[in-house]
Amino acid sequence: MIIGTVREVKHNEYRVGLTPSSVKEYVHHGHQVLVETSAGLGSGFTDEDYVVAGASIRQTAVEVWKNSDMIVKVKEPLESEFPFLREGLLLYTYLHLAANEALTHALIESKTQAVAYETIELEDGSLPCLKPMSEVAGRLSAIEGSKYLEKPFGGSGVLISGVPGVDRANVSIIGAGVVGENALKMLVGMGANVTILDINLKKLTYLDDIYGNRITTLYSSSDNIERCVKQSDLVISAVLLTGAKAPKLIKRAYYKEMRPGSVIVDVAIDQGGSTEVAKATYHDNPTYVVDGVIHYSVANMPGAVPRSSTIALNNATLKYGLMIADYGLDIAINRSNALKLGVNVYHGHCTCKGVCTAFDLPYLKI
Is the pTM of this model over 0.85? Predict the structure, then answer.
């Protein structure tokens, strides 16, 4: 199979779909790899690194898209890339289709076979290809949230850890999945006063056992969310419904009782966001203010640390990419139910329930 990777065209996106190490693995399995020139520079990988690994460098993205059987990316194709979608092409990347109706229809109409990293799901419900970027985003959410609490960035001027004789910042994390757990780890280390909410009591029990009285755990009811949001200097939304739109758990009505300059980091923005005023932002202009509350909602947070993120992502996605390349999609998804759940568009049909629900599309079970 001919595998291709291109430079990401999303604004401020510096990650790349394949590392030279991954290229070497595809070549070792007998596949040809095409890489757009300079595709990996944002992550610190030169064209020479790819050539040494066995790839062929192509001058333009058009050449790579046109001549590849499978394109491996990081982010979803943008509208400028829609013309490259075609029948017979395999697309392996993050898609987040439930928040992107235009791309959903473009994939269906072009009959591109689309496999989404974020819906590859193991029997225990874990998401192996989403996990590394969730870990990065969770840790970054604590760093960025504490930074935007600083007055020069418009924040309320609260130091996340406090100092002797001064209160620590109150932080609420909504969702105790991978993002929430990693944000918690950072914030406890930074000395914040942290409350984490989830509907999974087993997970809350686990976190209580780990952190003891250094944190507060609460069941994620609407009443508890409202109370915590109003009392928080920093709110991190880490909610996730696999393949579906994020629920709007943070209401604008809560803002009037929050301290001006409080911060909401909406990590759920990839799936449409969890506030009633959600809109995606970029790294060069990451925040906007509504009713005195700062919203940080960068849709590709891990892109801020592309070297770490690209390597972590490839560690997780290579296994399934090789499976597709070695056996073809149909045999691969018969061998791996986890990979089958990653297929969002198949021969012109939507095969992800969450996406079908979001856009009232007929659902095809593979």
Answer: yes
- 354 and 271 in contact (C-beta within 8 Å)? no
Residue 240 has pLDDT above 90, yes or no: no
The C-alpha angle with vertex 20 and arms to 18 and 24, in degrees rounded to 5, equals 100
Counting Cβ atoms within 10 Å, is residue 12 exposed (0-12), middle (13-18) or buried (19+)?
Answer: middle
Q: Is 133 helix (H, G, I), strand (E, B) or coil?
A: helix
Between the CA atoms of 198, 201, 206 and 207, what dihedral angle is there, to the nearest 10 degrees? 30
CA–CA gap between residue 239 and residue 173 (Å, rounded): 9
Give 74's contacts (C-beta < 8 A, 6+ positions apart). 8, 13, 15, 16, 17, 93, 94, 303, 310, 313
Mean pLDDT of 106-126: 97
Q: What is the pLDDT of residues 334-355, one digit of tens each?
A: 999 999 999 999 999 999 999 9
pLDDT in the model for residue 99: 86
Residue 147 has pLDDT above 80, yes or no: yes
- For residue 59, how far is the Cα from the chain centroid? 29
Angle, vertex CA 329, rays to CA 327 and CA 335, nearest 5: 65
29 in active site = no
CATH number, domain 131-304: 3.40.50.720
Q: Do domains 2-111+306-359 and 131-304 have the same CATH topology?
A: yes
165 Cβ partners below 8 Å, 6+ apart? none
Average pLDDT over residues 319-324: 98
Better pLDDT: 242 or 233: 233
pLDDT, residue 81, reads: 98
Catalytic residue among 28, 29, 31, 96: 96
pLDDT bucket at 304, cuts 50 / 70 / 90: very high
Tell me which fold the domain 2-111+306-359 belongs to.
Answer: Rossmann fold (3.40.50)
| DSSP sequence for 279-307 | --BBTTB-EEEETTEEEE-BTTGGGGSHH
Domains of the chain, by residue range, sit at 2-111+306-359, 131-304
Q: How many CB atoms lie within 10 A of CB 109?
A: 13
